[in-house]
Design goal:
By secondary structure, the protein is mainly α. The chain has 2 domains: 142 residues, no CATH class; 112 residues. The chain is built from 12 helices and no strands. It is globular. The N and C termini lie far apart (65 Å).
Length: 266
């Protein structure tokens, strides 16, 4: 079936996140701010687009689940998507497309999104015009993707309460030694649970670029090999799902950069 990616809520959202990342790497502050403004405006809590996005995310962000659980999630996502006022959703999508064309440019819709095929499949599942047989086949495909096992254990996920407790204890113990950038990173990580990690992704991409620049600017032949390894490690985090291991690695890198810069000053 024909797929209109401009009307695919999840694809447009992921394309904007890619655009923000690219703008940060290019140090294009104006374009980054415009893209961030569009995301905040159209995907605000309570909006039809935000609700629609959450329906998509419930199907493409879950991995390693039991098939029975996947089927229940799929059923609920279908129900939630159908409860959204189609006319209101279409209007908000139109406004979003117009803002992207006006404030940025149509090339945003050409951004490479790795899971595009999955997003297109979900879009067809939500489409009321999709034939029953086709829909069942597509649903089986999505369930298969959701139930695939990954190397990471789902039991290691950190919920909001656990993380908040960890951060409070961490701050109590290291309140005098935590760097400002470490505090900011931790704060974004906590709030990522309520804003779909938009602010965290933007901050982390910007911070990773800064750290790589700082590390590469240190002139010490003895550290050249280590600098390369650190840069490669930081590069591997681009575009990946942010977990506790990535968080701790970035925190350690922030501390390392501070120590190296202080050593150079001394």
């Amino acid at each position: 079936m024909k797929h209109n990616k401009k009307r695919n809520t999840a694809f447009v959202f992921e394309s904007l996140v890619k655009e923000i990342t690219a703008a940060i790497i290019k140090n294009d502050v104006d374009r980054k701010n415009k893209a961030v403004s569009i995301v905040k405006k159209h995907f605000r809590p309570g909006s039809a687009l935000r609700h629609h996005l959450e329906c998509y995310k419930s199907l493409y962000e879950n991995q390693g689940l039991e098939r029975e659980v996947c089927e229940k999630i799929l059923k609920e996502a279908n129900i939630s998507a159908r409860l959204i006022d189609p006319h209101g959703l279409f209007k908000q999508q139109t406004e979003l497309i117009n803002d992207i064309n006006k404030e940025l440019d149509p090339t945003v819709f050409n951004n490479f999104v790795p899971n595009y095929k999955t997003l297109a499949t979900i879009d067809q599942i939500f489409n009321l015009k999709t034939a029953p047989k086709t829909k069942v086949m597509l649903e089986n495909q999505i369930i298969g993707n959701m139930s695939q096992t990954t190397e990471q254990s789902t039991g290691d996920d950190v919920d909001t309460l656990t993380l908040t407790t960890f951060i409070n204890k961490f701050n109590e113990k290291y309140s005098d030694t935590l760097l400002d950038e470490q505090k900011e990173l931790l704060n974004h990580y906590i709030t990522s649970f309520v804003d779909n990690a938009v602010e965290l992704k933007m901050f982390l991409n910007e911070e990773l670029s800064r750290l790589k620049i700082e590390i590469n600017s240190i002139n010490d032949e003895l550290l050249n090999e280590k600098k390369q390894l650190i840069s490669e490690k930081l590069n591997s985090f681009q575009g990946t799902e942010i977990d506790e291991n990535i968080l701790l690695t970035v925190l350690k890198t922030q501390e390392l950069v501070k120590e190296l810069n202080d050593g150079c000053d001394n």
